[in-house]
Amino acid sequence: QKEVEQDPGPLSVPEGAVVSLNCTYSNSAFQYFMWYRQYSRKGPELLMYTYSSGNKEDGRFTAQVDKSSKYISLFIRDSQPSDSATYLCAMSVPSYSGAGSYQLTFGKGTKLSVIP
Amino acid sequence: KAGVTQTPRYLIKTRGQQVTLSCSPISGHRSVSWYQQTPGQGLQFLFEYFSETQRNKGNFPGRFSGRQFSNSRSEMNVSTLELGDSALYLCASSKGQGAYEQFFGPGTRLTVL
């Protein structure tokens, strides 16, 4: 079992729909949870990060973490064609070397298309 | 503020050759991490450097190496290239106190023939 599981999609929705993207994980040591957006031929762009269980909202985006279920979600409200991209979840755990160093583990990404 | 820059953007090499990729972090960022991205494996962590020291290393063979300079710029080197090394190599920088805020460059697309 991989440490982070993410449905690769593709996911296709009409403009204006609410999009739900999800990841599950197995490592209880994960402390920070992030969502990145990656457009074609670009590097990933950090959208949001959370530390504790609960919700965090930023504009049309809401990140949700449920540590007891080892499950994180990203909701996109009023989706736009410009939201069409691959969304990657990522989680960090302190590395073996300590010294404030963390290592990111990524899901494989979900490809989202928002149809006008 | 300028973002993370990576050079070159595209590279074509043949098996057995070696390659060096370069990354310039965001000004003020002291930590640089490298990742390999492929369609099959996704984003995989290679290594992290902070203040010219490798702090963390992923599960890659010794053919993959890196270094960081005093100005925080970083290079990664892949020796004896294999076909399976074809990938997008991404560099990310952070201030260094936690990996949760990592900012990625556009990547170097390496093709090994």
Rg of chain B, Å, rounded: 13 Å
* CA-CA gap between termini of chain B: 37 Å
> What percent strand of chain B?
over 45%
Order of helices and strands of chain B: EEEEEEEEEEE
Instruction: Tell the overall outline of chain B.
Output: globular
Count of alpha and pi helical runs of chain A: 0
Oligomer: heterodimer
Instruction: Round the mean pLDDT of chain A to the nearest integer and report it.
Output: 90
Q: Which parts of chain B are unreliable, with pLDDT below 50 for 5 consecutive residues or more?
A: none
Helix content of chain B: under 10%
Q: Of all protein chain pairs, which has the greatest interface, and how many residues does each chain bring to it?
A: A-B, 28 and 27 residues
Q: How would you sum up the major sheet of chain A? A: 6 strands, mixed
- The count of DSSP E runs of length 2 or more, i.e. the number of strands of chain B, is 11
Helix percentage of chain A: under 10%
Strand tally of chain A: 11
H/E element order of chain A: EEEEEEEEEEE
By helix and strand content of chain A, what is the structural category? mainly beta
Q: What would you note in describing this structure?
A:
- The complex is a heterodimer of chains A (116) and B (113).
- With 116 residues, chain A is mostly beta strands.
- Helix content of chain A is 0%, strand content 56%.
- Chain A has no helices and 11 strands.
- In chain A, strand 9 (85-94) and strand 10 form a beta hairpin.
- By secondary structure, chain B is mainly beta.
- Chain B has strands at 5-7, 10-13, 19-24, 31-38, 42-50, 53-57, 64-68, 74-78, 87-94, 103-104, 108-112.
- The radius of gyration of chain B is 13 Å and the shape is globular.
- The N and C termini of chain B lie far apart (37 Å).
- The model of chain B has no long low-confidence stretch (mean pLDDT 92).
- The A-B interface holds A 32, 34, 36, 41-46, 49, 51, 88, 90, 92, 95-97, 99-109 and B 4, 33, 35, 41-45, 48, 50, 55-56, 58, 90, 92, 96-107.
